[in-house]
Backbone:
């Protein structure tokens, strides 16, 4: 999509991002399938033709919303890879970055987590999620191999449980509360990694037996 397309404006008060924000809120409230272009037009106070000035279809709106969340999550992995260092340290960066993405893009991440693969757009999004999960699992396995994390746990299970915890934040987190993104990230790392790092007590032999 060209820069001119992404920045184009229609009627005063709504650009593409403004319409996208309202649409994502409606998708999360009613479900994507149950939200028609008519519902969006009513929410926006625009005609359907005014929406079509910005987006060719409801699927395009969904695609843009899901890409916003997925691209940010994929960027977290790229940033961690670029940082280099131990796998455990890169995993720490990924977990913290994922929490920040969730907080910063809460509506679009919430929508992503509710995708079930009913449309081609949703299936593409799920494929990107699976690719993300696979890379996180590989990072966990690498950290286990270097001796930074316990090796008696399956890497894929560790990845699923850890991101299950992170993803659950969408169910209770409310912007403007006492929990900041940094504090949430600290809590996630404390629960996930401090519970997985190799213990230093005499219980090591028992755990690895």
Residues:
């Amino acid at each position: 999509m060209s820069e001119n397309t992404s920045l184009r404006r229609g009627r005063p008060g709504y650009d593409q991002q403004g319409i996208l924000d309202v649409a994502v809120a409606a998708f999360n409230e009613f479900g994507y399938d149950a939200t028609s272009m008519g519902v969006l037009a009513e929410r926006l106070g625009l005609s359907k033709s005014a929406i079509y000035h910005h987006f060719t279809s409801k699927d395009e709106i969904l695609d843009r919303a899901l890409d916003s969340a997925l691209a940010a999550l994929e960027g977290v992995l790229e940033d961690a890879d670029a940082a280099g260092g131990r796998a455990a340290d890169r995993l720490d960066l990924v977990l913290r970055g994922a929490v920040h993405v969730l907080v910063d893009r809460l509506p679009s991440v919430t929508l992503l987590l509710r995708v079930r693969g009913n449309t081609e757009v949703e299936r593409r999004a799920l494929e990107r999620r699976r690719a993300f999960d696979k890379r996180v699992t590989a990072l966990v396995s690498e950290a286990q191999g270097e001796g930074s994390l316990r090796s008696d746990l399956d890497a894929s299970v560790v990845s699923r449980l850890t991101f299950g915890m992170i993803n659950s934040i969408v169910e209770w987190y409310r912007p403007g509360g006492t929990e900041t993104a940094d504090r949430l990230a600290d809590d996630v790392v404390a629960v996930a990694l401090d519970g997985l790092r190799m213990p230093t007590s005499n219980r090591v032999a028992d755990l690895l037996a």
Notes: Residues 58-83 form the longest helix (26 residues).
